[in-house]
Amino acid sequence: MTLSSLQSLFPGDVAVVTVTPGMVLGALHPAEEVHVRNAVPKRRREFTAGRHCAREALARLGIHGVAIPAGPDRAPEWPDGITGSISHCDSLCAAVAARVGRIVSLGLDIESVEPLSRELVSLVGTCAEIEEWDRASGELALDPAKLAFCAKESVYKADYPLTKRFLDFHDVEVAFDFERETFIARIGGVRSLHGCYGTDGKHVFARVLVTAPMPT
Asked: What's the whole-model pTM score?
């Protein structure tokens, strides 16, 4: 159910792979191993699961045996001509990848469905957003603040490869259409990205897919 729920957010030309972080997976490539050589076991499991998913996603695109190291900014370095995104929480890891063309950037975030802690709500949302979340909270199965956290993370992951700009949560304002399970993210009040979200009952997923302008 988890994989099908996640796959439903993406078009068919995007490879989607999921695993449980505790699964026994293959060894890391030496260029990847260096990033977790001194990491605690939990971080190492999550990193390994993420790279496993990413490699499987690349294999479905016909690309085999390549390393996916992290750059100085800790973002995954995908092969030339590929866009992708990796995300994980304690109980699930996933990666998505596509060939650059119609799609120019992907952003995926996965979170557990547990509500966002109150001390984080004001860090994630503007006053106007929090008012909207409070109005919606009684009508939704998902916590609106946690959903917004997930959506903003997916926005950052899609935007950063294109702009190399670090975004704060308050740099992005998200407006939801809860009936359609979609959102529009305004970045700095000047740019917009569109996304959608879903859930398998245990996790909430958000994705942003940036496409190339249509030829005129």
From this structure: 0.93
Q: Is the dihedral of CA 46, 82, 163, 196 positive or negative?
A: negative
Domains with residue ranges and CATH for the chain:
2-106 (3.90.470.20), 109-211 (3.90.470.20)
Radius of gyration of the chain (CA): 17
Confidence of residue 214 (pLDDT cuts 50, 70, 90): low
Residue 106 contacts residue 207 (beta carbons within 8 Å): yes
Looking up tokens 């990413």, which residue turns up? 54
By the 8 A CB rule, do 95 and 53 touch?
A: yes
pLDDT at 1: 58
Q: Is 105 in contact with 83 (CB distance < 8 Å)?
A: yes
